[in-house]
Amino acid sequence: MASTTTSPPAGVQVSHPVRRAKRAPALRRMRLRRALPGYLMLLPFAALFAGFLVWPLLNSLYFAFTNYNGVKPPTLVGFDNFQRLWFEDERFRTALVNSFAYVAATVTLTTVLALALAVAFHGTSWRDRIMRTLFFLPAVTSTIAVALIWRWIFTVEDFGLANTVIGWVGVEPVQWLATPSLTIPILVVMAVWGGCGYGMVIFVAGLNAIPEEHYESARLDGANAWQQFWYITLPQLKPVTTYVVITSLISAFQVFEAVYIVFRGVSSVGGVQDSGLMLVPYLYDMGFTKFQLGYASAIAWSLFIVIFVVSMIQLRVTRALREL
Amino acid sequence: MRTRLAVAAAAITALVAGCTTSGGGDEPAQEAEGPASLTFWNTGSDEHAAALQVVADIYKQSHPDVTIKVQALSWDDGHAKVLTAATSRTGPDIISGGMSWGIEFGELGGMIDLNAQDIGSIKSQTRPEVLKAITSPSGAVYGVSFDNAFYLLFYRPDLLQKAGLSGPPKTWEELTAAITKLKAAGVKTPLVENWNTFEWLPWFNWLKQAGGSLYADDCSKATIDSDPAVLATATWAKQFREHGVPKAATDSAAGLANGEVAMAIDGSWVANAIDTTHPQLKGKWQVAALPTGPAGPGTFVGGRIVGVMAYTKYPKAATEFIKWLYTDEAIQLLQKEVYNKSGELWLSPRADQIDTLTTTDNVKQTLKTTMETVSGPPNCKGWEVSQAEVTKKLQSVVNDNVDPKQALGEAATIMNNNLK
To answer: What GO biological process terms are annotated to this protein in UniProt (chain A) (predicted)?
Structure first.
């Protein structure tokens, strides 16, 4: 019987694969020994990540295709929740429109204001440091506490700061929180005030990373301050701007506390005539007030799709602009 | 690579397939052996929970085998927390909460039907209107009335007198006239309306006073678009549009104290709180029943229910404690403790206990009179889901000048759809 094994031709480096195969388990053991402490150190985080993020996410994906009230076992309903949500639910449409209006205004204003503040206060002087700290303070303050203070500011009663201020110039008191046309503007003001400090810090880091030589060359070429900003600062800040816009966009889509604390009524979480109803408050309302947890999960996954699509569009647009 | 993908896909499939809930037990609760240790989530303030704990400790003296620990649950997130408890089947044995919570959580399978625990004595001591509101369409009672609250008219007699009024308004017409006179006399905001301002709850008072209702008695259809309801809505809207009643909640006690508010339609619990928060106002305010409409008097009755969670190991012990809460001893203790700890009025569902409240004769008499005219929230299917839409339609009458008939017609359509 002919042997199936063939001898290597003379002169050829013998048994390279064979030796490697023999060494493989030893290598694997060595690599494992080397990597084991790292994996062990990762384990607590991985366990928490799996338990508190991956598992709930998978659960919510499953519930999105079920009819589930939180107590009785869920029953599969296929795509019914998504069909009802996207094609029949007027409140979802209201929440979607409100969310887009809020996001557009908030992201634009936050980014512009954050950039302006960063340009104004990016130095190392005490004045700049103090101003940066002041503008950053809202970002490290409890959102609940901030929302409560805004609620007081816009209250109809005498201690309402907004009415007091407009009263100084003879304007009649306004029922800020009960006037639907003012709801989104108030929420935008709150978000911009609370978010521009964080954006400013990111922009300051970006500004300080721009080589000073660029500006020196530009000055030698006779560029004025505006030209330096337009042709050096802005283009150099594109990656930072993209980051600020994307993170502001995601957090704006996920707004909850401001609506819940400032505008919530007993009958509706979205304020007077649902004027402040956004996607996450609506999700909360359907899940925890109306016990439609399957439907609320469908809203959550729809929100994920919306944010994903908008972020992708934004990234593509940024890339296209960079290539111009 | 393919193997890894296949393993990952299989793992995800297995995880998703395994995503079953721990809830879902429809099996009847069985009483566990031995001493009962009960947890009571009381929706309300810390002071209320502390008052209830005193009462629970006194209960233990006559029931040494039952220990009750009372924990305060805030109104803001109480509903979500009870839902979480019902879902995970862990948490309190007894809960108190909004009047509709019993039916809501009970229909989900989260609370037990107390009818199985012989609550005849409690039912006989509960006003029929309240009993109707807490009884599910199937006849189940998942939570019995724990305390009651209804709307009253608080006012400053001196301000009314200054405006040339001899007393509080007794009818809608007198209310309108009083607002006009008070405004002319320089009162900044003659009337405020609290307790769910600019929502369906205070509107419900007007509906009852006009002779309307939300649903037919047998819950077969919505009747919110009837002529009395249209009249009630138009009149309710007029107070915001023409008479300067704020659409946002205000601190009525502070307004009465500083003289900027002359009349306040507010919850009955405010009665004693006025003196506590504004001692300078003691003896300077009075209370009256709400003005009557074309069909007579009427006010919404709310308050809390108390019930037993479905997963408790001690359904009998928990129900026995709830039954004891209806005794003279427990009621008078709660009245005293709530008053001592928070200065508020605790109103038992038992009208015969009003006389033992620590309050003025004027308040006692008004409470008694008003209690005769109360109506609870509807117990018809779909009301919980409909109320946000109904509120929006009502608000559109005020904000967008929508015709009340049209707004209520749209509300009726929504309510009828949710009845199915």
So the answer is: transmembrane transport
